[in-house]
Amino acid sequence: MEAKISDVFFDLDHTLWDFEKNSALAFQTVLTKHKIEVDIDLFVSHYVPINLKYWELYRVDKITQTQLRYGRLKDTFDLLSYEIEDEKIFFLSDEYIHYLPQFNHLFEGTIEILEYLKPKYNLHIITNGFHEIQSNKLKNSNIGGYFQTITNSESAGVKKPNPRIFEYAITSAKAKKENSIMIGDCIEADVKGALNFGLDAILFNECNAEVPENIKHINNLLALKKYL
């Protein structure tokens, strides 16, 4: 007989909070404000995979936060053959971080599923994002009140998929892993990280990517009702 779920842990970016849409709007604001003469749509299309690559490196501690924030912009400008000084890149990076939490599009069904889950379960966040930025996202998008605990990589001292961040989150929530489940968009960080720790997991597969047969997955957040 399966253990009864009492605690549900969500990733934030790319799972509840629509990172790509909000990121594009932040860049549109920053690049326009500072008269950076590039095609913004083209800039964003280059930035998205570059940012993903840098986050993968950051997740396994191969680069620092500063290298992440500088490198992803530097590489994007280089692809566009746009000459820009390093000092300006650091400045634009800070501006982007400032504006990013001010755009708060959520994935379809986010509020409805949180309203559905809140009376039934204790809800929590586990994110590799940075404390101040993630706190602002939760506050500005009006979903912070749904969650009892927020675990980020800065407070835990490690990033998903390291089992210690899941241990930290479970302990903070006063939960038991056999009564908990993790929901996130990244197979490596969220799903395999949780499963390797002994925590059940569901992949939010919004882009309908191919998924291994043994991985539970949903394409829309409201589909969580089938499991919870």
UniProtKB/TrEMBL annotation:
<dbReference type="InterPro" id="IPR011951">
    <property type="entry name" value="HAD-SF_hydro_IA_YjjG/PynA"/>
</dbReference>
<dbReference type="GO" id="GO:0016787">
    <property type="term" value="F:hydrolase activity"/>
</dbReference>
<protein>
    <submittedName>
        <fullName>Hydrolase of the HAD superfamily</fullName>
    </submittedName>
</protein>
<dbReference type="InterPro" id="IPR023214">
    <property type="entry name" value="HAD_sf"/>
</dbReference>
<keyword id="KW-0378">Hydrolase</keyword>
<dbReference type="InterPro" id="IPR023198">
    <property type="entry name" value="PGP-like_dom2"/>
</dbReference>
<dbReference type="InterPro" id="IPR036412">
    <property type="entry name" value="HAD-like_sf"/>
</dbReference>
<dbReference type="InterPro" id="IPR006439">
    <property type="entry name" value="HAD-SF_hydro_IA"/>
</dbReference>
<dbReference type="Pfam" id="PF00702">
    <property type="entry name" value="Hydrolase"/>
</dbReference>
<dbReference type="InterPro" id="IPR052550">
    <property type="entry name" value="Pyrimidine_5'-ntase_YjjG"/>
</dbReference>
